[in-house]
Amino acid sequence: DSAETSPSVVFENIKRCSPNCLQMLLENLSGLTVDADFTVELIPEINVAVATFIKSIDTKEFVKKCSQDKRVREFKMTARLLELTQTIKAENLPDSISTDYLTVYFESVRSGGGPVSDVQLFPEENSAIITFCDHKGNT
């Protein structure tokens, strides 16, 4: 299909698999190397990890391979593609941050950004919601 596929795979129900074990498991399944070919971000609050592939792979096939893998099933984990989105939340922002600064920062090609259509600042939470013109600018 011609639709763009996410370079990120979400692993749910990771609590039975330590971070190091998860990284080794993903290396075994993908044949790639953590840090050089992909990154893993743990989100323990919601029992999830996100693997983002720097090296281009067929993530749909990778998800299929994970769902059929004996070890993944033993850990009772599930894998799915991360949905592509046009909106991200930036947290732990300094008090003095402005919407103009955030717009310019997230439009920076150097930081993987793209055209920003909207920035909503939430000073009481030191956070902001950044909306991109398309999903390619939020890597």
Automatic annotation (TrEMBL):
The source's superkingdom equals: Eukaryota
Q: Where is the signal peptide?
A: none
Pfam families per record: RRM_PARP14_2, RRM_PARP14_3
Q: Where is the PARP14 second RRM domain?
A: 5-83
Q: What is this protein called?
A: PAR14 polymerase
Gene label: Parp14_1
